[in-house]
Amino acid sequence: MTFDEIIAAGRTGKELEMPATWSQGRATFGGLVTGLLFDRMERMVAENRPVRSMHVSFVGPVEPGVPAVFDAEILREGRSVSQVEGRIVQNGEPRLVCLAGFAGDRESAVRIDGVSAPEAKSVDQCQGLPYIEGVTPGFIRYIEMRLAYGSLPFTGGSGREMGGWMRFREVPEAMTDAHIVALIDAWPAPVLQHFKSRVPASSLSWTLDIIHPRPPVEAGDWLLYKAKIDQAGNGYCHYDAEIWTHRGELLAISRQTVTVFG
Hints:
Number of strands: 14
Shape: globular
Strand order of the largest sheet: 1-5-6-7-4-11-14-13-12-10-9-8
Helix content: 10-25%
Structural class: mainly beta
Number of helices: 3
């Protein structure tokens, strides 16, 4: 099932089973489940209140093939801002909790443009992250990534940076904020390039800001992602990332804490 097909299925009720083809180890790809929950949360708020910031806690793995309940609640709705909580519950236990702030524009005397994109090789010059059945995470069959910074995971590389170009392999009907959420979580933690053999890793928490007014993004556009390690050690990695349109406009800011089992 494509991302669009799963989004459509999720709008028919609160309960949904994740397809095994979107796997990431023993769990479902975090970007998929977060995007699905975000879509439910977004549809609850008033119009003209795009998401500004969200914080995700990955409490436990959302298992494929097991019914999962997606629920959302408006905690407060003010004149400009809506605060929304979303949860994914599986086997009676919370597996993912999300808090998001949706806010309309305010008048301001200050405007500072987002940081411009760094230099990057063109898509055609960048090595792709291939989907290899039984080796790479299942979701890579749906999301295409081209490495422009750093090294591939588990190749014994060095440095703090990793990233490159990304888009859905099958062009969606439209590039919504839910699609952007899913894409941003696709890149592996940059610390994984330092290992010479495969080790498990999983996200502990994720904070994401989407810039609004959001630069226009067509469904088939490539987006540029660049992450930098702030610190890694004792089984954890803390890193920041920025995402730009192919024209170099800042689109989103991301920060993750990842647990590394190696």
